[in-house]
Specification:
The protein is an alpha/beta fold and 448 residues long. The protein has three domains: 6-143 and 265-327, FAD/NAD(P)-binding domain; 152-262, FAD/NAD(P)-binding domain (3-Layer(bba) Sandwich); 347-445, Enolase-like, domain 1 (2-Layer Sandwich). The radius of gyration is 24 Å and the shape is globular. Helices cover 31% and strands 23% of the residues. The longest helix is centred in the N-terminal third of the chain and has 25 residues, at 81-105. Bound molecules: flavin-adenine dinucleotide. Flavin-adenine dinucleotide (FAD) binds at residues 11-17, 34-37, 41-43, 47-48, 51, 114-116, 139-141, 158, 179, 267, 271, 303-305, 310-313, 315.
Length: 448
């Protein structure tokens, strides 16, 4: 008999926590999992999944317009936000149910309460119950970070965007990252007037310069208004409803909704980690080693709360590697090299490996191959929107160092191509592959 109530106590039923709990239980561990909000975490409940569904919904605006050029008699169409919102939320409910079923079929003891750490082997749940465990896993994710400015409470974050009572006529989005650009695309396609307000002079830091420049150009052409070098000053309520957004160096911007997409902070407030001996870093993230172990040997952490790479597939891999290592007799580490990522903007973009700037910093001289083209479908649709594919190659051994693209279905295409980049294939290997015609992806094997 173990001296503890559980072999593993997981805090947070998101991407990393659910995977770790399920796999550890499958390895025979007695597992408890506490969740303060909804099972599935950010990705399923208020992140990747509902966002992607909204993006599909928004894309119909262009598809319906383009359909006319393909011979379809499309009458003037109305859009009903409540229908899209409610259908998306119903799908989220369905997925949450599936997650709960998986946990229960693996005999994971689910506690639908907030949990806090009370010691290296002790957790307290909101109802006051204390539980002991040989191992504690912190998988509490991250939350939207809202700037500390007067009137910030009048704004929303991505959390609330999925529940809006109605579609705003005018929306101001603060931030320049992927969440800001994705929601700008959604609202703009659905008919809102969108202004992105950004403290710096650029969007999507970390992505290749040519690709983000192309998104900016297309977004402006689609009608999104960008205000750069415009620090947020305050938000005021507006007579008759809505808000007025004051930003540095610009005229005040009236809006129905202001949304903050200004980064995500690790969920460690009041979690009790420091009292248990885990000192948080300056961002409030949980420090861990390559095995996801904190300085307290019985406490581990995975996912966004560690502020390494804040992406669902990474949290899942970390949770899986943790469970295999600690409970499956199969020590494994996550390989962080060449993680592909995407922005589901309109059009979407995706990248893997080094950007041109990073490659030049690390390798000096690099070869750049590009294809700047109009997708066949866009040509017939009369849509003057160009795709851009860019490959960065090490001239010393012909290895592909990075691949970046913007255009229709870019994330779908890049996922497959990322296998080649991760495997260290050469430009010649791409050239040796016969094109699959007619596709957009064939540009990858025809790059000159
Ligand atoms: P989470 O999934 O956030 O789960 C943490 C869970 O812990 C939550 O359910 C929370 O309620 C719970 N919790 C917190 N504190 C406590 C406590 N004390 N007690 C009990 N429970 C607690 N990633 C992608 O890869 N692709 C995308 O397209 C993408 N789009 C996104 C879009 C948006 C709008 C957002 C916000 C995020 C998006 N992400 C995307 C990021 C992705 O959602 C996260 O990287 C991922 O969910 C992290 O998983 P996690 O397990 O670390 O944390």
């Amino acid at each position: 008999m173990s001296e503890f109530d559980f072999d593993l106590f997981v805090i947070g039923a998101g991407s990393g926590g659910v995977r770790a709990a399920r796999v550890a239980a499958a390895h025979g561990a007695k597992v408890a999992l506490a969740e303060e909000y909804r099972v599935g975490g950010t990705c399923v409940i208020r992140g990747c999944v509902p966002k992607k569904l909204l993006i599909y919904g928004a894309h119909f605006a262009e598809d319906l317009r383009d359909a006319r050029r393909f011979g379809w008699h499309v009458p003037d169409c109305d859009f009903d936000w409540a229908t899209l919102r409610d259908n998306v939320l119903a799908e989220v409910d369905r997925l949450e149910g599936l997650y709960c079923n998986t946990l229960s079929s693996h005999s994971v003891h689910l506690i639908r309460e907030r949990a806090e750490v009370r010691g290296p082997h002790e957790v307290e749940t909101a109802g006051g119950a204390r539980h002991t465990a040989a191992t504690i896993l912190i998988a509490t994710g991250a939350r939207p970070a809202v700037p500390d400015c007067p009137g910030a409470e009048l704004g929303i974050t991505s959390n609330e965007a999925f529940h809006l009572a109605e579609l705003p006529r005018r929306v101001v989005i603060a931030g320049g990252g992927y969440i800001a650009n994705e929601f700008a695309g959604i609202f703009n396609e659905l008919g809102s007037r969108v202004t992105i307000v950004n403290r710096s002079g650029e969007i999507l830091r970390g992505y290749d310069d040519s690709i983000r420049d192309r998104l900016l150009k297309i977004s402006v052409e689609k009608g999104i208004d960008f205000r750069f070098h415009a620090p947020f000053e305050r938000v005021e309520p507006r007579e008759g409803g809505g808000v007025i957004v004051h930003v540095g160096g610009q005229d005040p911007i009236p809006a129905d909704v202001v949304m903050f997409a200004t980064g995500r902070a690790p969920n460690t407030q009041g979690l009790g980690l420091e009292q248990a001996g885990v000192t948080l870093d300056a961002m409030g993230a949980v420090p861990v080693d390559e095995d996801n172990r904190t300085p307290v040997p019985s406490i581990f952490a995975v996912g966004d709360v560690t502020n390494r790479v804040q992406l669902t597939p990474v949290a899942i891999r970390e949770g899986h590697a943790f469970a295999d290592s600690q409970f499956g007799g199969n020590p494994r580490r996550v390989d962080y090299h060449c993680i592909p990522s995407a922005v589901f903007s309109h059009p979407p973009l995706a990248g893997v490996g080094l950007t041109e700037r990073q490659a030049r910093e690390r390798h000096g001289d690099v070869k750049i191959y590009q294809s700047d083209f109009r997708a066949m479908k866009n040509v017939l649709a009369g849509r003057d929107e160009r795709a851009l594919y860019k490959m960065i190659v090490d001239p010393t051994d012909d290895r592909v160092l990075g691949l970046h693209m913007i255009g229709p279905d870019a994330p779908e295409i890049l996922q497959a191509a990322a296998v080649a980049v991760k495997a260290g294939l050469t430009k010649q290997a791409f050239d040796d592959t016969v094109a699959l015609h007619p596709t957009m992806a064939e540009e990858l094997v025809l790059l000159r």
